[in-house]
Fold these 2 entries.
Entry 1:
Amino acid sequence: MLDDRKLDVLRAIVEDYVATHEPVGSKTLVDRHNLGVSPATVRNDMAALEEEGYITQPHTSAGRIPTDAGYRLFVDKLSTVKTLSPAEKKAITSFLAGAVDLDDVVRRTVRLLAQITRQVAIVQYPSLNRSSVRHIEVVTMTPRRLLLVLITSTGRVEQRIVEQTNDVDEQLIADLRSRLNTALAGQRLTEATTSLAAVTDLFAPADRPLVAAIVTTLLETFTDEVGEQRIAVGGAANLTRYGDDFERNVKPVLEALEEHVILLKLLGEATNPQTLTVRIGHENPFEELATTSVVATGYGSKSEALATLGIVGPTHMDYPSTMGAVRAVARYVSQILADS
Amino acid sequence: MLDDRKLDVLRAIVEDYVATHEPVGSKTLVDRHNLGVSPATVRNDMAALEEEGYITQPHTSAGRIPTDAGYRLFVDKLSTVKTLSPAEKKAITSFLAGAVDLDDVVRRTVRLLAQITRQVAIVQYPSLNRSSVRHIEVVTMTPRRLLLVLITSTGRVEQRIVEQTNDVDEQLIADLRSRLNTALAGQRLTEATTSLAAVTDLFAPADRPLVAAIVTTLLETFTDEVGEQRIAVGGAANLTRYGDDFERNVKPVLEALEEHVILLKLLGEATNPQTLTVRIGHENPFEELATTSVVATGYGSKSEALATLGIVGPTHMDYPSTMGAVRAVARYVSQILADS
DNA sequence: ACTGGCACTCGGTTCAGCTGAGTGCCAAGG
DNA sequence: CCTTGGCACTCAGCTGAACCGAGTGCCAGT
């Protein structure tokens, strides 16, 4: 049904439309890309492509624009992910290498991604449930107030306050600290919950209330956070660089950016950094975001993703470049995280 | 020059314009507010007000809109900060009370402020330079990698990695940990830098390289962060609820929200929670933000502000309500922080 | 199978004319 | 002296007609 030339035409339409954001007609198409055929022929091909649902006319006397299905075909079959220039790669690594802690890595990544793709960037913090306990610290702030600090293998640091009604014994705390670390260090947070339960039993009954309070708080920290995923967003100003219909649809996007739960759904399941997920227009689960696409991928180790990062932009974005940038950033972040 | 009635007229104009976002004319004004005089009289007053620069006409045959000076006068003399309803107050405290750590307090505050004011909310993290050292923890992650954790009196936790070329001695670390805490606990970060320098001398020359590395990193943490202030932003979607000229000027605002340095300048110096800073239109230091106003105030203890929070919105915002909300949120956050 | 030609469609633009909200000014009245 | 009703004037925005031109579909010819 669709011979090679028709696909060439589709590719040309997508590329043109992405560049100009204006419906493209048969004449301009042959002018701009050298297709070696006449406008009339292109028109016939266009009619066929429209028949198949890959392109559409906004109104009778206008050119064609790609449909979501058109973009889909383009992404799947008609384009190759663009690789970054060595200069860009170098810029990425050196920018990321300057990060001073995990928070900083994430902040820099968001910024970087937004800048390179000129879209809205979203980076999920490395999830706790895939990471393991590196260290647990119990600090007495005042005689009745303790601070728990949990440091994970990904460098994430969680803190919790525990209040007590009686003064706590410093020796007991030291004891607890060492036992907690012995019992939990190196364990996955998901597994650690079971080991944690056993710790209470090691202590004298008189000390158990305090120990139990701490254990409970730790338990909450381990599990609670799994649901309440943290996310960083950046580059919202990029939504305004289209003199476009899209610009009028900025509201739902901005609203989505405020709702981290929605963003998590948009990003979807983390995949390994080799695999790029692209959701085009209404392929994403939200009605209001029918004119936006998402390009996402996992990051973390080569084999297993810790979390997801990606960008959100108009359906008429430059997929090859954007996909290249997302993939590259994901790889370099993975690398940085592996090193530290 | 400006008798009471003229001021009443100005007040009416501001209130009307804020409500409708349309230039207000003499007739509609007497209809809507019962001023007890005829449109003709109001016209004379308007002419006077325009003469004085408080209002202006977008074009000859249109009504008047307030100038920045008009809003200024309104805020300073013609309005009283609106207090929140008991229900709202209760909602604020209960929402903030659910916070689990400092990060969470800040996140919740931003969200809250954005929701109540329906504007873009900005909250600066409690600044390090006004807070003091509560605890310093040195953790060995691997034999050659140390993690420094600094806990401040405001509950903020900073982490830094220190790499060593040789394996470090666990005993030395313990020693260092206790000395650091003895020397620094309770001190302001700004003062702590001097005490910190003295710590190195307590150690044997052989140990000094390691100690110096840690001290240097701590020093950086103390001072570096003073410049690189952290900020949380929320409610950007509220920028889109004006069917307005303002909506077309969203770009510079979104851009400003990305640049934390700019936001810090916008918020300005922290004041105590009693004092509200209002910057109207071009009163703020950025040319591109001439159609936006900022309402900000400090928060922290009663007497001394730790940091600033506030909102950014169109010059034609509802100042009395907004100011009330900002002040209330600042007070309750201060309270929560004081308790924890 | 491709191409040139041709009639047709229709969104966007331009222009004139109209409308009406709003103004400034003036003269009359309290 | 302040207020008010009246009146002429201004001008942004709307409306409708005319026009333009990019783009289409179809058909006959090569």
Note: Residues 132-223 of chain A form a domain with the Enolase-like; domain 1 fold (CATH 3.30.390.60).
Entry 2:
Amino acid sequence: MAPSAKHFKKRDAILHCLQCSTAHPSAESIYAQLKPQIPDLAMGTVYRNLNLFKEQGLVMSVATVRGVERYDGNTCPHVHFICTHCGAVTDLHEVQVGPELNAAATGACGGRVESCQLTFTGLCRECYQRKESGESA
Amino acid sequence: MAPSAKHFKKRDAILHCLQCSTAHPSAESIYAQLKPQIPDLAMGTVYRNLNLFKEQGLVMSVATVRGVERYDGNTCPHVHFICTHCGAVTDLHEVQVGPELNAAATGACGGRVESCQLTFTGLCRECYQRKESGESA
DNA sequence: GTCTGTGCAAATTGTTTGCACGCAA
DNA sequence: TTGCGTGCAAACAATTTGCACAGAC
């Protein structure tokens, strides 16, 4: 009855993993998280489904951090923060990109703007505090 | 006398190539551009210097487009546009990120914000026009 | 002599792909 | 029987790295 029978078990698990996480996981970490529950999961499957989801617009690529691609199951436009020290990617829902920027970009590029990503980089709270206390010690 | 004697010939050439280009080249394309003038240039050298420049803050990484990293010799903050069709990366100097966003991000992340990148994706003028005329034909 | 920049080629690593199998319709 | 999702392992491509040498000081 339900279309998500046995046939889509892994696909659903991967999507669910992405949509329920705010860590913006990499393919590798999705695999690591799912592997215990689904022992016969293969990396190829993770990558294949990830690319499928991207095509379908269910998932987007946030950034490539230290050579590995990070994904986001939340496709509503929002701002990201990347910690250069620990590699964490977090959402900054408090920061908003005004529509006027989009309009300006459309005018400036002369073509069609489809999406917009604002990303801040720096030190996250944990790494910042650790660094401060380490240096002052 | 000048420190940039023979010893820094390739390093200088790579940096110059980046700073004079607005195409946000990849390591590969820097190599391709320089190779005719400097036949004994090696990819390893390009990558090594690129990483050095990044550390020194002379150059920044703009984005990873289709799996290849793109660099920018212009480190003044500015907005980018990436064409999903041809992979071109261009500057949008007309669009500006206000300082209030930076402040908001600093507050929201709780750590330290070091840089900010606003990137639009879509179709550049050429690809957009080509697509339009192709479809309406 | 020492230090730094580099060529070269091998190694590493993230990602993709071909093939064969198994379940669902 | 046909089609799709998948495991597995090989293939790929971008990037990094170890080693040895050459020129600068």
Note: The longest helix of chain A spans residues 43-56.
